[in-house]
Hints:
By secondary structure, the protein is mostly helical. The protein has helices at residues 3-10, 14-44, 49-85, 89-116, 118-125, 132-144, 146-161, 165-189, 194-217, 234-265, 270-306, 310-346, 350-363, 367-382, 386-446. The chain has one domain (9-445).
Amino acid sequence: MDKKRLYILGEMKVSKAILQLAIPTILGMVVQILYNLTDTFFVGKLNDPYQVAAVTITLPIFMMQMALSGIFGNGAASYISRLLGEKNYAGARTTATLAWLCTAIVSVLVSILGIVLLPSILKASGASDNTFGFAASYLTIIFAGSIVSMLNFTTSQMIRAEGAAKYALMGMLLGTGTNIILDPIFILWMHQGVKGAAIATVIGNGVALCYYLSFYLRGKSLAAPALKYLSLQWSTLKEILKIGFPSSLSQFMMSVGNAISYHIASGYGDNTVAAMGVAMRVFTIPIFIFIGLAIGVQPLIGYSYGAGNKLRLKHVLNTAIAYALVLSFVFTLLFALFSKYTMIIFIKNPEVVAIGSQILRVYTFAIIFAAVQMQFGSGLQAMGKGMASFILSISRMGLIYIPAIILLNKFFGFNGMILALPLTDFLTTGLAFGFIYKILVNVEKEHEPA
């Protein structure tokens, strides 16, 4: 076993341990940002709003794939870190094996159903006559490569959960580097457009997955899946689903919320859909950084909770929130000053740039709340607080965002539509704070002198 990684999780100074785990994870998210922006950037070089809009409306579908794999990836990751804290290494390997098998089965179903139901999916997503053909060619390839993309996501989450953040980062670097190299080749030089973007995406995921498999095969893992650990135990699956379902429901609801956003935006024209797509991709820059911090901290929280070290648990949470607030201030300043110039990087259509700049300026108000919210949500998942995670998951992009964007758009038009996200993050952060505050109060009581 890797004693150094166990030392980081259980004994290293909290501020140092967070940096040790979070910096590689944040860098991994930066890589993921590049991954997400690459398609938009190179498709944008075609200066065709219809193809940009096509990539935009298909993004929620791809996110739903990741949400389904996250049921097993995120759920297994939380349980693996807790099992390692309990020194239950066999249980951790059993969990990883079961999660891998479930992801493979679900991914095959996604491929079949996605291709069969493709016309209905695109119609529901708001594809117009101008964007339908482009979106269909993109999604057909994405669905065909579901097993590669979904297994890649699940595996990276499990590797990160055992404290091997550097290995998880390396896989992301290889996958994203491949995608960045192949995008201009397929999109521009081979004139494949959005279809080329989809091919590059699937190949990039495949390269990353191969690296993760080599990590397991080389004996580097504390919790590698293996046939001898395959056991269809309901107790293990229950623990995976208890956290995996709520955490992935959040991503699934985000996909649904984004799909509804683009559907509503399509009522204002394809240029508005393209603008919102670029703006939302740019907004993922701070969001992914916050997620990177949260994911990096998650193994520390899970390990401390599993080991019964409540004081360390509280210290980790407080330090993570402090780091998140500092980062949120930096991004708020950048977004307030450079929204227009950021849009121009991706597309030079004046109308698209003007609309997108307005959207980004409004989204600036959501940054600080999103930063804190990500840390709260990750903490609840790592501690195995399934019900709290479930409530938080269905609230942000479901119970709060969807009614908000529908009602605000109805009464205030375009301005109301783009105000829905900041309002949602404000309300959801308050809800998450209530859950975390209750946990911290209980921690304090447990350590009061008798």
